[in-house]
Amino acid sequence: MPDALEIWLRRLRDPDPATRREAIRQLEFIGDPAALGPLAQVFALDTDLELRRLAQAAGKNIYRAIIRREAQAEAASEAERRTASEILAKARAKRQQRD
Amino acid sequence: MLYDDLIRRLRDPDQWVRVETLRILAMVEEARALREIEWVYKNDPEMGVRQVAQWAGRSIMAAAKTTTGSITPVLVKQADREDALLSSLIEKDPRTYEQMQAQLLKQELLDEMRQASAAPPVAVRAEEPERPAAPPRPLDRMALLEAGLSDSFFEG
Protein backbone atom coordinates (compact mmCIF):
# COMPACT_ATOMS: atom_id res chain seq x y z
CA MET A 1 0.00 0.00 0.00
CA PRO A 2 1.51 3.37 -1.01
CA ASP A 3 2.31 5.82 1.80
CA ALA A 4 1.15 9.44 1.96
CA LEU A 5 4.37 10.74 0.42
CA GLU A 6 4.03 8.47 -2.57
CA ILE A 7 0.37 9.41 -3.09
CA TRP A 8 1.00 13.15 -3.00
CA LEU A 9 4.08 12.86 -5.21
CA ARG A 10 1.91 11.11 -7.80
CA ARG A 11 -0.77 13.80 -7.50
CA LEU A 12 1.87 16.42 -8.15
CA ARG A 13 1.68 15.27 -11.78
CA ASP A 14 -2.13 15.43 -11.92
CA PRO A 15 -3.55 17.38 -14.88
CA ASP A 16 -5.84 19.32 -12.51
CA PRO A 17 -4.04 22.40 -11.10
CA ALA A 18 -6.16 22.28 -7.93
CA THR A 19 -4.94 18.75 -7.22
CA ARG A 20 -1.35 19.76 -7.84
CA ARG A 21 -1.82 22.74 -5.51
CA GLU A 22 -3.10 20.50 -2.73
CA ALA A 23 -0.24 18.07 -3.36
CA ILE A 24 2.30 20.88 -2.93
CA ARG A 25 0.72 21.89 0.38
CA GLN A 26 0.66 18.33 1.65
CA LEU A 27 4.26 17.66 0.61
CA GLU A 28 5.36 20.79 2.44
CA PHE A 29 3.50 19.57 5.49
CA ILE A 30 5.16 16.14 5.32
CA GLY A 31 8.56 17.83 4.94
CA ASP A 32 10.37 14.85 3.40
CA PRO A 33 13.52 15.74 1.41
CA ALA A 34 12.42 13.16 -1.18
CA ALA A 35 9.85 15.75 -2.28
CA LEU A 36 12.51 18.32 -3.22
CA GLY A 37 13.18 16.89 -6.69
CA PRO A 38 9.52 16.63 -7.74
CA LEU A 39 8.78 20.09 -6.28
CA ALA A 40 11.76 21.48 -8.18
CA GLN A 41 10.34 20.01 -11.35
CA VAL A 42 7.05 21.84 -10.74
CA PHE A 43 9.03 24.99 -9.94
CA ALA A 44 10.95 24.72 -13.20
CA LEU A 45 8.35 23.39 -15.61
CA ASP A 46 4.74 23.76 -14.46
CA THR A 47 2.55 25.72 -16.86
CA ASP A 48 0.81 27.47 -13.95
CA LEU A 49 2.98 30.33 -12.70
CA GLU A 50 1.20 30.43 -9.35
CA LEU A 51 1.88 26.73 -8.80
CA ARG A 52 5.54 27.28 -9.65
CA ARG A 53 5.75 29.93 -6.94
CA LEU A 54 3.95 27.70 -4.46
CA ALA A 55 6.28 24.80 -5.25
CA GLN A 56 9.31 27.01 -4.72
CA ALA A 57 8.01 28.28 -1.39
CA ALA A 58 7.25 24.73 -0.25
CA GLY A 59 10.66 23.47 -1.43
CA LYS A 60 12.47 26.30 0.33
CA ASN A 61 10.60 25.64 3.56
CA ILE A 62 11.42 21.93 3.47
CA TYR A 63 15.08 22.62 2.63
CA ARG A 64 15.50 25.27 5.32
CA ALA A 65 13.87 23.09 7.95
CA ILE A 66 16.33 20.29 7.15
CA ILE A 67 19.32 22.65 7.13
CA ARG A 68 18.16 24.11 10.44
CA ARG A 69 17.90 20.66 12.01
CA GLU A 70 21.35 19.76 10.71
CA ALA A 71 22.79 23.02 12.01
CA GLN A 72 21.32 22.49 15.46
CA ALA A 73 23.10 19.16 15.63
CA GLU A 74 26.45 20.84 15.03
CA ALA A 75 28.43 23.06 17.32
CA ALA A 76 30.49 26.02 16.15
CA SER A 77 34.12 24.97 15.99
CA GLU A 78 36.91 26.69 17.89
CA ALA A 79 38.25 28.15 14.63
CA GLU A 80 34.81 29.57 13.76
CA ARG A 81 34.54 31.16 17.18
CA ARG A 82 38.00 32.69 16.81
CA THR A 83 37.17 34.05 13.35
CA ALA A 84 33.89 35.47 14.63
CA SER A 85 35.66 37.18 17.52
CA GLU A 86 38.16 38.77 15.12
CA ILE A 87 35.42 39.98 12.79
CA LEU A 88 33.44 41.41 15.68
CA ALA A 89 36.49 43.21 17.06
CA LYS A 90 37.24 44.74 13.65
CA ALA A 91 33.62 45.74 13.13
CA ARG A 92 33.44 47.38 16.56
CA ALA A 93 36.70 49.25 15.98
CA LYS A 94 35.37 50.57 12.67
CA ARG A 95 32.12 51.64 14.27
CA GLN A 96 34.00 53.46 17.01
CA GLN A 97 36.10 55.22 14.35
CA ARG A 98 32.93 56.37 12.61
CA ASP A 99 31.28 57.48 15.89
CA MET B 1 24.37 16.81 5.15
CA LEU B 2 21.73 17.72 2.60
CA TYR B 3 23.80 20.48 1.00
CA ASP B 4 26.85 18.23 0.60
CA ASP B 5 24.67 15.52 -0.90
CA LEU B 6 23.32 17.98 -3.45
CA ILE B 7 26.81 19.10 -4.41
CA ARG B 8 27.88 15.46 -4.83
CA ARG B 9 24.86 14.82 -7.03
CA LEU B 10 26.02 17.53 -9.44
CA ARG B 11 28.77 15.04 -10.47
CA ASP B 12 26.40 12.06 -10.72
CA PRO B 13 26.92 9.98 -13.90
CA ASP B 14 23.16 10.18 -14.60
CA GLN B 15 22.43 13.45 -16.38
CA TRP B 16 18.82 13.49 -15.05
CA VAL B 17 20.11 13.40 -11.50
CA ARG B 18 22.33 16.38 -12.31
CA VAL B 19 19.40 18.25 -13.88
CA GLU B 20 17.14 17.53 -10.92
CA THR B 21 19.83 18.69 -8.52
CA LEU B 22 20.34 21.93 -10.43
CA ARG B 23 16.60 22.57 -10.29
CA ILE B 24 16.56 21.93 -6.54
CA LEU B 25 19.46 24.33 -5.97
CA ALA B 26 17.70 26.98 -8.06
CA MET B 27 14.42 26.41 -6.23
CA VAL B 28 15.97 26.87 -2.79
CA GLU B 29 18.22 29.70 -4.07
CA GLU B 30 21.32 28.09 -2.64
CA ALA B 31 23.99 30.76 -3.27
CA ARG B 32 26.73 28.60 -1.72
CA ALA B 33 26.45 26.30 -4.71
CA LEU B 34 27.21 28.95 -7.34
CA ARG B 35 30.80 27.85 -7.90
CA GLU B 36 29.79 24.24 -8.38
CA ILE B 37 26.97 25.26 -10.70
CA GLU B 38 29.40 27.31 -12.72
CA TRP B 39 31.67 24.27 -12.96
CA VAL B 40 28.76 22.24 -14.36
CA TYR B 41 27.93 25.07 -16.77
CA LYS B 42 31.47 25.06 -18.11
CA ASN B 43 32.36 21.37 -17.99
CA ASP B 44 29.31 19.12 -18.14
CA PRO B 45 29.44 16.88 -21.22
CA GLU B 46 25.68 17.30 -21.87
CA MET B 47 24.56 20.53 -23.45
CA GLY B 48 21.10 20.22 -21.85
CA VAL B 49 22.65 20.00 -18.42
CA ARG B 50 24.87 23.00 -19.13
CA GLN B 51 21.80 25.00 -20.14
CA VAL B 52 19.99 24.07 -16.93
CA ALA B 53 23.13 25.03 -14.99
CA GLN B 54 23.14 28.44 -16.66
CA TRP B 55 19.46 28.94 -15.84
CA ALA B 56 20.02 27.83 -12.24
CA GLY B 57 23.02 30.13 -11.83
CA ARG B 58 21.12 33.11 -13.15
CA SER B 59 18.12 32.36 -10.95
CA ILE B 60 20.25 32.15 -7.83
CA MET B 61 22.23 35.27 -8.71
CA ALA B 62 19.02 37.23 -9.31
CA ALA B 63 17.60 36.04 -5.99
CA ALA B 64 20.84 36.81 -4.15
CA LYS B 65 20.93 40.35 -5.54
CA THR B 66 17.35 40.90 -4.43
CA THR B 67 17.73 39.49 -0.94
CA THR B 68 21.26 40.55 0.02
CA GLY B 69 21.23 43.86 -1.82
CA SER B 70 24.56 43.45 -3.60
CA ILE B 71 23.37 46.18 -5.98
CA THR B 72 21.54 48.33 -3.46
CA PRO B 73 23.13 49.25 -0.13
CA VAL B 74 22.85 46.79 2.70
CA LEU B 75 19.76 47.67 4.66
CA VAL B 76 20.45 45.77 7.84
CA LYS B 77 22.12 47.86 10.51
CA GLN B 78 25.65 46.90 11.46
CA ALA B 79 24.75 46.52 15.12
CA ASP B 80 21.87 44.21 14.27
CA ARG B 81 24.17 41.94 12.32
CA GLU B 82 26.72 41.81 15.12
CA ASP B 83 24.01 40.97 17.62
CA ALA B 84 22.72 38.26 15.33
CA LEU B 85 26.25 36.88 14.93
CA LEU B 86 26.71 36.73 18.67
CA SER B 87 23.32 35.15 19.15
CA SER B 88 23.99 32.59 16.46
CA LEU B 89 27.23 31.61 18.15
CA ILE B 90 25.51 31.31 21.48
CA GLU B 91 22.81 29.18 19.92
CA LYS B 92 25.44 27.30 17.88
CA ASP B 93 23.75 28.00 14.57
CA PRO B 94 26.49 27.75 11.92
CA ARG B 95 24.21 28.73 9.03
CA THR B 96 23.23 32.04 10.58
CA TYR B 97 26.83 32.50 11.59
CA GLU B 98 27.98 32.08 7.97
CA GLN B 99 25.36 34.52 6.72
CA MET B 100 26.24 37.13 9.30
CA GLN B 101 29.94 36.66 8.66
CA ALA B 102 29.41 37.21 4.94
CA GLN B 103 27.33 40.33 5.65
CA LEU B 104 30.00 41.79 7.89
CA LEU B 105 32.79 41.11 5.40
CA LYS B 106 30.70 42.59 2.64
CA GLN B 107 30.02 45.71 4.68
CA GLU B 108 33.74 46.09 5.27
CA LEU B 109 34.39 45.94 1.53
CA LEU B 110 31.67 48.51 0.86
CA ASP B 111 33.14 50.82 3.51
CA GLU B 112 36.59 50.51 1.97
CA MET B 113 35.22 51.16 -1.51
CA ARG B 114 33.41 54.27 -0.27
CA GLN B 115 36.54 55.51 1.47
CA ALA B 116 38.62 54.88 -1.65
CA SER B 117 36.18 56.75 -3.88
CA ALA B 118 35.96 59.66 -1.42
CA ALA B 119 39.73 60.01 -0.97
CA PRO B 120 41.34 62.95 -2.86
CA PRO B 121 43.76 62.05 -5.68
CA VAL B 122 47.39 61.89 -4.55
CA ALA B 123 49.56 64.52 -6.28
CA VAL B 124 52.81 63.07 -7.65
CA ARG B 125 55.74 65.46 -7.75
CA ALA B 126 57.49 65.72 -11.12
CA GLU B 127 60.89 64.61 -9.80
CA GLU B 128 59.47 61.50 -8.19
CA PRO B 129 59.59 58.34 -10.25
CA GLU B 130 56.16 56.97 -10.97
CA ARG B 131 55.25 54.31 -8.47
CA PRO B 132 54.30 50.89 -9.75
CA ALA B 133 50.65 50.08 -9.48
CA ALA B 134 49.68 48.65 -6.13
CA PRO B 135 48.77 44.97 -6.10
CA PRO B 136 45.03 44.36 -6.08
CA ARG B 137 43.47 44.41 -2.65
CA PRO B 138 42.14 41.12 -1.33
CA LEU B 139 38.40 40.94 -1.86
CA ASP B 140 35.89 39.58 0.57
CA ARG B 141 34.16 36.27 0.02
CA MET B 142 31.10 37.69 -1.68
CA ALA B 143 33.23 39.74 -4.06
CA LEU B 144 35.41 36.75 -4.83
CA LEU B 145 32.33 34.72 -5.52
CA GLU B 146 30.98 37.27 -7.91
CA ALA B 147 34.33 38.04 -9.53
CA GLY B 148 35.04 34.38 -10.12
CA LEU B 149 31.95 33.82 -12.20
CA SER B 150 32.22 34.44 -15.91
CA ASP B 151 30.23 37.14 -17.66
CA SER B 152 28.30 34.63 -19.72
CA PHE B 153 27.20 32.98 -16.53
CA PHE B 154 25.42 36.15 -15.42
CA GLU B 155 24.15 37.71 -18.57
CA GLY B 156 20.58 36.90 -19.35
Percent of sequence in beta strands of chain A = under 5%
Molecular shape of chain A: elongated
CATH topology of chain A: Leucine-rich Repeat Variant
In the CATH hierarchy, the third-tier topology of the largest domain in chain B is known as Leucine-rich Repeat Variant
Mean pLDDT, all residues of chain B: 71
- Given this structure, which CATH class of the largest domain in chain B is correct? Mainly Alpha
The whole-angstrom Rg of chain A is 21 Å
Specify the CATH architecture of chain A: Alpha Horseshoe
Q: What does this protein structure show overall?
A:
The complex is a heterodimer of chains A (99) and B (156). Chain A has 99 residues and is mostly helical. Chain A has one domain: Alpha Horseshoe (Leucine-rich Repeat Variant). Chain A has helices at 4-11, 17-30, 36-45, 49-72, 78-98. The longest helix of chain A is centred in the middle third of the chain and has 24 residues, at 49-72. The N and C termini of chain A lie far apart (67 Å). By secondary structure, chain B is mainly α. Chain B folds into two domains: 1-71, Leucine-rich Repeat Variant (Alpha Horseshoe), CATH 1.25.10; 73-116. Chain B has helices at residues 2-9, 15-27, 34-43, 47-68, 78-90, 94-118, 141-148, 151-154. Residues 69-79, 120-130 and 134-141 of chain B have low confidence and may be disordered. The A-B interface holds A 33, 36-37, 39-41, 43-44, 55-56, 59-60, 63-64, 66-68, 70-72, 74-76, 80-81, 83-84, 87-88, 90-92, 94-95 and B 1-3, 20, 23-24, 26-30, 78-79, 82, 85-86, 89, 92-97, 101, 104-105, 107-108, 111.
For the structure shown, list the relevant keywords.
heterodimer, A: 99 residues, mainly alpha, Leucine-rich Repeat Variant, elongated, B: 156 residues
